[in-house]
Amino acid sequence: MNQRIARLLATMAAVVVTLFGLGAAQTARADDLPTFKLEMNNGKLNPTRIEVPAGKRIKIEVHNTGTNAVEFESLQLRKEKVLAPGAQSFVVIAPLQPGEYKFFDDFHQQAQGVIVAK
């Protein structure tokens, strides 16, 4: 019985170590990506044009500096991220072909921008 418990504990420890290792690897990879900042503030975007390298994964850090919720959304990129006032987060975007990809604030649809991959 004690051997079963010992094996179970060893297995659980291995799973926990593996999960922490995978999480650290994910974080390290996201930290190493070319990063671009986007400020969203009650229907205003800054910048409205983000130039990125084509063919590389990128990270866009989104900061909601406004007093209302915002939603970064791009139908072309199939990305969306809802942020409460004062919150920040990021989206990782797969390597893009050269071109323009629209994004907008789904809660303030007049706020529109473009990611330009060159």
Inertia-based shape: globular
**Percent of residues in beta strands:** over 45%
Q: Got a strand count? A: 9
Cα-based radius of gyration, to the nearest Å: 19 Å
The helical percent reads 25-40%
The secondary structure category is alpha+beta
Give the overall pLDDT as a whole number: 86
Total helix count?
1
Order of helices and strands: HEEEEEEEEE
Largest sheet: 5 strands, mixed
First and last CA, distance: 63 Å
Query: Which residues sit in consecutive blocks of at least 5 with pLDDT less than 50?
Result: none
Numbering strands along the chain, what is their spatial order in the largest sheet? 3-9-8-5-6
Report on this structure:
The structure is a single chain. The chain has one helix at residues 2-31, and strands spanning 35-41, 44-46, 49-52, 58-64, 70-74, 79-83, 88-93, 99-105, 108-117. With 118 residues, the chain is an alpha+beta fold. It has a five-stranded mixed β-sheet, with no helix packed on it.
Can I get a quick summary?
The protein is of the alpha+beta class and 118 residues long. Helices cover 25% and strands 46% of the residues. The strands form 2 sheets. It has a 5-stranded mixed sheet, with no helix packed on it.
What attributes does this structure have?
about 120 residues; 4-stranded mixed sheet; alpha+beta; single chain; 5-stranded mixed sheet
